[in-house]
Amino acid sequence: MSVKKLFAVNFEVFGKVQGVFFRKYTEKQALHLGLRGWCMNTAEGTVKGQLEGSQNELNEMKHWLRTKGSPSSRIDNAVFSEMTPIDNYTFQSFGIKR
Prior knowledge:
By secondary structure, this protein is α+β, with helices and mostly antiparallel strands. The protein contains two helices and six strands; from the N terminus they run E-H-E-E-H-E-E-E. A hairpin with a 5-residue loop joins strand 2 and strand 3 (47-53). The protein is globular and about 40 Å long.
């Protein structure tokens, strides 16, 4: 059995991403991809969070955060930290922080 390498990455999405169910769709997409972590609204009007998972799924999620988001959102920019290798998950699932 091969062990998948796990990585963690932080993200922040800029644009019209609050009040458009962005976090709900982000959670749905992350769970669909089997990723763990969290996302939350910021006082600056962005959505930021952390993702954990394998590189392929993280890349797919990064693309989704850059280009898709929720149906009524408008993404101006998405910023990601370097992918950091991790030994184990630090989150049980993916959730929305309030």
